[in-house]
Write a structure and sequence with these properties.
The protein contains 3 helices and 8 strands; from the N terminus they run H-E-E-E-E-H-E-E-E-E-H. The protein has helices at about 1-25, 90-95, 160-165, and strands at about 30-35, 65-70, 75, 80-85, 100-105, 110-120, 130-135, 140-145. A hairpin with a 2-residue loop joins strand 3 and strand 4 (about 80-85). The longest helix has 22 residues, at about 1-25. The radius of gyration is 19 Å and the shape is globular.
């Protein structure tokens, strides 16, 4: 009898250990945006790097509330592309103003990159993580580039933390989002 129960026990144990993995969402990264502590003061966005996690609560330690972007978007970085097909909440795009914003990029709740959002045409000089808006046409997915500073060459080395966290989640070719 014990010989017959052994395979059943092995199956039961494998199901129990795979349960948490199967429950993990398909997309384990998220892009959050928040206004700087003072309008136009993007240098304060660098202080968001001190936030270690942002998962269940969208409230930052300084009392500001972060907004998770659920719209279709892609983030190009030196190691590839992160693609988000978009969710049911399209209102986030309407509530978010790309001008004068800070961002947090999280992987499984842990902050990997944090800094300012700027347009390609910006004349700002920023020496911290930057999301550059490549494309924001109405009706099309938002296209962003993640850079370690602005302005910067796309081939500029990135932090090992970015490589470690983002490489397993990235694709090597540009996504086709609609």
């Amino acid at each position: 009898m014990w010989k017959r129960l052994r395979p059943v026990g092995a199956l039961l144990i494998s199901c129990l250990t795979m349960g948490p993995l199967a429950a993990e969402p398909a997309q384990s990264w998220a892009l959050w945006v928040v206004k700087p502590d003072r309008p136009g003061h993007l240098e304060s966005c660098a202080s968001l790097r001190t936030v270690s996690t942002l998962a269940g609560s969208t409230m930052l330690p300084d009392g500001r509330t972060a907004l998770r972007l659920e719209q279709p978007l892609s983030i190009r970085w030196q190691g590839g592309y992160l693609a988000q097909p978009g969710g049911p909440d399209k209102q986030a795009a309407e509530r978010w103003n790309a001008y004068d914003s800070c961002f947090l990029l999280t992987v499984r709740g842990a902050v990997v990159a944090a800094g300012a959002v700027v347009r390609q045409e910006s004349a700002r000089l920023l020496r911290f993580d930057t999301l550059v808006i490549r494309s924001d046409k109405a009706g099309a997915p938002l296209g962003l580039s993640l850079l370690p500073a602005f302005p910067a060459e796309f081939a500029q080395p990135v932090s090992p933390a970015w490589s470690q966290a983002l490489t397993p989640l990235s694709t090597t070719s540009a996504p086709t989002l609609r």
